[in-house]
Amino acid sequence: MLAAWEWGQLAGFKARSQRVWLAVLCGLLLALMLFALPEYQRTVHIPLIEASLWASLAWWFAALLLVLFYPGSASIWRNSKTLRLIFGVLTIVPFFWGMIVLRNWHYDINHYTGSIWLLYVMVLVWGADSGAYMFGKMFGKHKLAPKVSPGKTWQGFFGGLFTSAIISLLFGMWANLDVAPVILLTCSVIAALASVLGDLTESMFKREAGIKDSGHLIPGHGGILDRIDSLTAAVPVFACLLLLVFRTI
């Protein structure tokens, strides 16, 4: 709901009352979706959850095209609040369901398995971010997307991917999970790629909105979206690949 509040600004809603309504409506939407599920069931193969994750995969592929062709691509959505709201829904709602299904992974067998998976995705993204920052600081010369986020470099990008691959290999060795290392590595690297895309996509929307931070809810760090932008892409993409594409259940 806090993310929806901040997305209202990215969508072009300047009035505080409008953004409050967006946050409330987002909360109601998620609550209604939860009530629509069968009792005590949060598996990925429920149509509502499955559709949300597939929609996320499609949205982030579309977002990749928007980022690659920015600023020309902005002419498609720049003057449409409706489109920007749809983009917000496709960012926030699948992220919510991605967290739910990962947290409920084999819950009937072991209550903590899902916690490990959810923590893994977070560590993966944070590790990729840290690796990208360090490699970018040490070797960064060539800009990754200067029209969207001038601070990011190709050296940092590949450094982040390298870091995520190392985390995946170590996690696969020590966590004793019933997933083939190749599948885990593939899902992890693609999720790391998605995390970069999530960051770039939010930067693109902020640039169009003429703001530096998505909000001021976290003093000294900006807004909620500034902290979870990478996760909003990585979590649903990882869940979709692992549970629906590779069907690791």
Can you walk me through this structure?
This protein is mainly α. The protein has one domain (43-245). The protein is built from nine helices and two strands. It has helices at residues 2-10, 16-35, 47-68, 74-77, 81-103, 113-139, 154-174, 181-209, 224-245; strands at 143-145, 149-153. A two-stranded antiparallel sheet has the order 1-2. A hairpin with a 3-residue loop joins strand 1 and strand 2 (149-153). 41% of the residues are buried. The mean pLDDT is 90.
Brief write-up:
This protein is mainly alpha-helical and 249 residues long.
Task: Give the uncertain stretches in residue-range form.
Answer: none
Walk across the major sheet and give the strand order.
1-2
**Radius of gyration, in angstroms, nearest whole number:** 18 Å
Structurally, the number of domains stands at: 1
Order of helices and strands: HHHHHHEEHHH
Protein name: Phosphatidate cytidylyltransferase
Enzyme class: transferase
GO molecular function, one term: phosphatidate cytidylyltransferase activity
Main location: membrane
